[in-house]
Amino acid sequence: MRVVYTPAHLAHDITIETWMGMPIPANEVAERAERIRGALEADGGFTFDEPVEHGEAAITAVHDAGLVRFLEAAWSRHRAQRIPRPFLSADTYPNRAMFEGMSTEAVDRLAREPVQVGGRAGFWGLDSAAPLVAGTYSAARAAVDVALTAADLVLGGEPAVFGLCRPPGHHAARSMYGGYCFFNNAAIAAEAIVGATGERVAILDVDYHHGNGTQQIFWRRGDVRYVSIHADPDHDYPYFLGRADETGEGPGEGENCNLPLAPGTDDGAYLAATDRALEVIDAAPGSVIVVSLGFDTYGLDPIGTFGLTTAAYHEIGRRTAALGRRLVILLEGGYHRPSLGENARAWLRGAEGRPFDPLPAAGFEEGGAVAG
Ligand code: SP5
Ligand code: ZN
Asked: pTM value?
């Protein structure tokens, strides 16, 4: 399988994130992508391509240009304000209750981007856990190019291509970043595929978290079907979207399918949900699936609660490919660093119909034991 990768992601390296006001060691770190690259190189069955630069138009096809300008300038503004921290995180968010009782027109006029950078980060941001650093914008742009290059290769005839995107994308909405995501790589790729083919596209999101950004972007669209399996938002991030009764509106009615699962979900229940998700995709026409692939469903993931195993990833990859559609597979989350390489290798080998043989040198075994 061909893999699109660039070291440009290394510019976005995070040491600390804030969680409920507490500084904690960052989860979405550069080591994640390097672990996966290393495992795929060691496998020998993957070849690597550099991304091709695609420019801004593909981004503003799904994102507000104001978000792009904010992300481009945020770090220099943060520096200019002499904020003594190594990353930018918001001060105040425009909670919807702040505007309660006001007309939509009044809110559109008054709830606008302020000047102070902590207010700007609140205006464009969802949460306090997506730290922005000096290299964030360039890395996020490169991740988009990775996704678009993977899509180009598939449109050129490859049956399945893996885009090693970092930072991830599926929490980023048209006018919002958040959840470690800045630009929505999967949504940008899906939009480009619709534009290039005129066909309908399906997005299968198997990250642990609901892809609120992807859902939002395609909510009213009849040409992109979004199907997501994730932790019940009553219990986990992003909390305010991801329920089963969110089915889309207007031309998008029936094109959004959320399959929320309880904390602690194991392989059996997850594979049953996978079969349901694949049925929903199979029921609409189209020849390409964009996969938002997260490994935070893994049993040892530090922020997820599910119990998936490496064997399950191999099987999910196999079943997804068995639909017979071409796959643009894009990395989203997954934070248990020692297992990421093996889990990615398992999924991708499954998608190619190859068996999975654990690498002896992985230094990692199921259950978390570190091999000598
Ligand atoms: C792409 C992606 O997977 N984004 C996930 C964003 C999750 N943000 C919330 C992180 C919560 C961290 N919780 C730490 C719990 C320590 N017990
Ligand atoms: Zn996630």
From this structure: 0.96
